Amino acid sequence: MRTQLSIDKVRGPFVTNVEEISGQDLLDCNQCGKCSAGCPIVGVMDILPSQVIRMAQLGMEEVLESNTVWICASCLTCVTRCPKGVDLPRLMEALRQISLREGVSKLDLDALPPDLVKAVPQLAIVGGFRKYIK
Ligand code: SF4
Ligand code: SF4
């Protein structure tokens, strides 16, 4: 993925917005990779959790296109492993919220098989894309 980096992006409104919504200081992350190494579902993500925060640090709005942001199960494993106290699930939630506010969602409820919708608890479906929203 090629992108043009600039100080305007790194200190820009996207980073400010992500930090405000998530309550995280993105520069706390030192890219140690412990979050990615311990994530139980990293195998189905298109980029690593540590890459999500790196892209967010750099103001790369392309991170919103990643399926990782939506696949993250908010299991908190990465939170327990992070030596810098970064709450990655809250970052993922902030990125989902930014997408949803722009009318973009990776989860199309109408596309789910009816049998699945009947069988899965409604809370699980809602929680699948709005994990921290009450
Ligand atoms: S474990 Fe924490 S400091 Fe390490 S890469 Fe992940 S978020 Fe960054
Ligand atoms: S909270 Fe998300 S990113 Fe962190 S370990 Fe769990 S699934 Fe992976």
Structural description of this entry:
- This protein is an all-alpha fold and 134 residues long.
- The protein is 49% helix and 0% strand.
- The chain has nine helices and no strands.
- Helix 2 (13-22) crosses helix 7 (88-101).
- The longest helix has 14 residues, at 88-101.
- The protein starts with 6 loop residues before the first helix and ends in a 5-residue tail after the last helix.
- The model has no long low-confidence stretch (mean pLDDT 89).
- Bound molecules: iron/sulfur cluster (2 copies).
- The site of one iron/sulfur cluster has 14 residues, from helix 3 and helix 4.
Summarize the structure in short.
Helix content is 49%, strand content 0%. The protein is an all-alpha fold.
Element layout with pairings:
Elements: H1 7-10, H2 13-22, H3 34-38, H4 49-57, H5 68-71, H6 77-81, H7 88-101, H8 114-119, H9 122-129
Helix pairs in contact: 2-7
This protein binds iron/sulfur cluster (SF4) (2 copies).
One iron/sulfur cluster (SF4) binds at residues 29-35, 50, 53, 81-82, 84, 86, 88.
